[in-house]
Design goal:
The chain has 299 residues and is α/β, with parallel strands linked by helices. The protein is built from 8 helices and 14 strands. It has one domain: Metallo-beta-lactamase, Chain A (4-Layer Sandwich). Strand 12, helix 8 and strand 13 form a beta-alpha-beta unit. Bound molecules: D-malate (MLT), manganese (II) ion (MN) and zinc ion. Zinc ion binds next to helix 1.
């Protein structure tokens, strides 16, 4: 299985268009310690010229331009993108579907909840369901979005997308609103969890023994957006675990055996984005990598 990180940042990317937090300031100034990053998505393949995108970020067009494997190769119209698999309905995970218009067939997989959000939003009809069928996948039922690839959704504590929050908001719900994906090919297993509000015993079990784990790396500290003066929300309020602390991801997944563990969906306020920072060193000392755009893995 081939894996390419198309984008490693959380919503907004790095730097974010309107942000002057300490990390974005370094990025705006061209400081080499902060590599610019686009919004989170990975591409996976187990065959020739057949790729599946895990989420479609608003930066998808630029991600394809930066990734030769995803570019058209044959005839007048062509794409190796066979399917897009959605883990939730967040803007940073669905807006890229709009860049996949132009009458190209591919499949869109998601839970009933996530596909429902796309159905209700008429703008997504520009990606015609006749050419890009919506294929609901249930928990625990494997699907095969491209040759040689088997995938399965599992529940992850989460919430509805920001743009669907209302008075009835439940953070940490385990419904179809947020999922993780298990991807297997040739006996190798990748687990993709770009958003997660809590670690449950079932989640630990899902992750255990994976050859590669991509996990929610939104914030380093739960209150870092408040501390940086760029927001009023904690990570917990946004439905994201933080990397550090007793209740953070590094601590909660410490004893779960995984061959390689990589943080993805990293918010621009996260100091672990700065090469050489104390936070980066702590993350690496704990056995984690911080994803970069263009990173590749072969499983
Ligand atoms: C999130 O990951 O919390 C969302 O992408 C937030 C957003 O939609 O901006
Ligand atoms: Mn996000
Ligand atoms: Zn910022």
């Amino acid at each position: 299985m081939q894996v390419i990180v198309l984008g490693s940042a959380a919503g907004g990317g790095v730097p974010q268009w309107n942000c002057r937090c300490p990390v974005c300031r370094l990025a705006w100034s061209g400081d080499p310690r902060v590599e610019p990053r686009t919004q989170s998505s990975i591409a996976v393949s187990a065959g020739e010229h057949a790729w599946v995108l895990l989420n479609a970020s608003p930066d998808l067009r630029a991600q394809i331009a930066a990734t030769p494997a995803l570019q058209p190769k044959f005839g007048e119209r062509d794409s190796p993108i066979r399917a897009v698999v959605l883990t939730n309905g967040d803007v940073d995970h669905i807006a890229g579907l709009l860049s996949l218009r132009e009458s190209q067939p591919f499949d869109i997989y998601g839970t009933q909840d996530t596909l429902g959000l796309i159905r209700e939003n008429q703008v997504f009809d520009v990606v015609a369901p006749t050419l890009a069928p919506r294929r609901p996948a249930a928990f625990g039922v494997p699907f095969h979005p491209a040759p040689g690839l088997e995938m399965e959704f599992f529940t992850v504590p989460g919430k509805v997308p920001l743009w669907r929050e209302d008075a009835g908001l439940v953070i940490g719900e385990e419904t179809g609103s947020t999922v993780g994906v298990t991807i297997t090919a040739n006996g190798r297993r990748l687990v993709y969890v770009p958003g997660c509000a809590a670690v449950t015993p079932a989640l630990r079990e899902r992750i255990a023994g994976a050859d590669l784990l991509f996990f929610d790396g939104t914030l380093y500290r739960d209150d870092e957006m408040i501390a940086a003066g760029v927001g009023t929300k904690t990570g917990a309020r946004m439905g994201h675990l933080s990397m550090s602390g007793m209740e953070g991801t590094m601590a909660l997944l410490k004893d779960v055996p995984v061959a390689r563990r990589v943080f993805i969906h990293i918010n621009n306020t996260n100091p672990a984005l700065i090469d050489g920072s104390d936070e980066r060193r702590a993350v690496e000392a704990a056995g984690w990598a911080v994803a970069r755009d263009g990173m590749e893995f072969s499983l």
